[in-house]
Specification:
It is built from two helices and seven strands.
Length: 142
């Protein structure tokens, strides 16, 4: 009997800065594939890859930016967080500079000020993740 385990994924809350190091907003993607809607950029961890490596790779693949991982926001493991299957996501807060471009599974890239993120349009459990991020950010004084 084969052992069944959840999929391991990673997502990035990418804080975008301009060349003057001024904060521009949070990058979200419009998904090409179901479930359609807005999402944090991210994807699955490959065999032989750490969650941190996967996060950096996925950000490059989906938004065409190199990111710096700042900290692990949390591990999201609710079996119902993804309507397709049981997936556990390690979510990192990242920083990036440059112009994001949609690629891979991203249909389009959006940049939102933190307080203007359309929470009702987020798929998966990304509304909860953004709320957790806002709370962590207020505690850190960012």
């Amino acid at each position: 009997m084969a052992i069944q385990t959840p999929y391991v994924a990673t997502d990035g809350i990418v804080e975008l800065y301009d060349t003057n190091n001024d904060f521009q907003g949070i990058i979200l993607i419009e998904r090409k594939n179901p479930p359609h809607g807005l999402a944090l950029p991210g994807g699955f961890v490959d065999i032989g890859e750490s969650c941190e490596e996967a996060c950096r790779r996925e950000m490059q693949e989906e938004i065409s930016l190199d990111v710096t991982l700042r900290y692990l926001l949390g591990v999201y493991s609710d079996p119902k967080r993804d309507p397709r299957f049981h997936a556990i996501s390690c979510v990192y807060v990242c920083t990036a500079h440059g112009t994001p471009k949609a690629a891979d599974d991203a249909k389009k890239v959006h940049i939102y000020p933190i307080d203007e993120i359309p929470l009702e349009k987020l798929v998966f459990d990304h509304k909860k993740i953004i709320e957790d991020y806002k709370q962590a950010r207020s505690k850190k004084g960012d």
